[in-house]
Amino acid sequence: MRIAGSVVIYNADEGVVDRISSYAGEVQKVFVVDNSDTPDEELLSKIESSCGNIEIVPMHGNMGIAAALNAALNKASEQGMDYLLTMDDDSYFTGTTLRDYLARAQEIFAQDGKVIQIGIHNSGDKDDDLVVNNENPDWLITSGSIMAVENSIAIGGFLEMLFIDEVDREFCYRAIDKGFKLRRVLDLTMQHNLGQPIRGRFLGRSFEAMGHGKVRKYYIFRNCTYLMKEYPRVRKAYRHYLLATWVKTILAEDDKLNKIKYMRMGRRDARKGKFGKLEV
Question: Which domains does the chain have, with CATH numbers?
């Protein structure tokens, strides 16, 4: 199995060097896709010199996560890789987890040629969450996923007009519609950072709000509205998610008025067919 790794970096911290090292030794190549507005040449030099199989792929500005993932897929294809491990810049593996995961993935791909993507349990998953603890999921996050390169490219790769947010789920929904399958390995765990949620209480019940800034809220509401239209089977779940995000923003987050403005703008732009990068 010829497999490459990839990571999209955006204004990354120096700890990314060690995180990349946690998987670089188990794959043939690592494509480090730099999506930063201003490249940190010193950091890129440290990353490149940390392992002998690293290739820096400059995007010359923030082109969005979908374009960066497509750049990694295309690099993997050009260099004859069968599979691509996609990582976030804050995710990493410990011990022999990746080695075991790659062996399991090889078995799964060999058993069923319709499997296009395999995911792994991660440290941010909740043990009682039936959505993420499903061996036959409807969607996977890209971090820690292993993708069949040629099939992923054949169905169009990642949808660049979404720019960021819901890019991973849209790919999964489209792949399933085209007859492909997803799998998740549950008994191995990748280390994955979900950020610092804001905790709040309402009517005696506690909850967590993600605390995203106004621009991120825009992309969430715009892209979720688009997915509700394109994939009716997920409409109900997305309605609940957007309503919960709206309520939690009002109850627990700062800059409420601006965030509400951008959430409304996101829904409006989706209905108008306005996509791509938000210019602010």
Answer: 3-190 (3.90.550.10), 198-272 (no CATH)
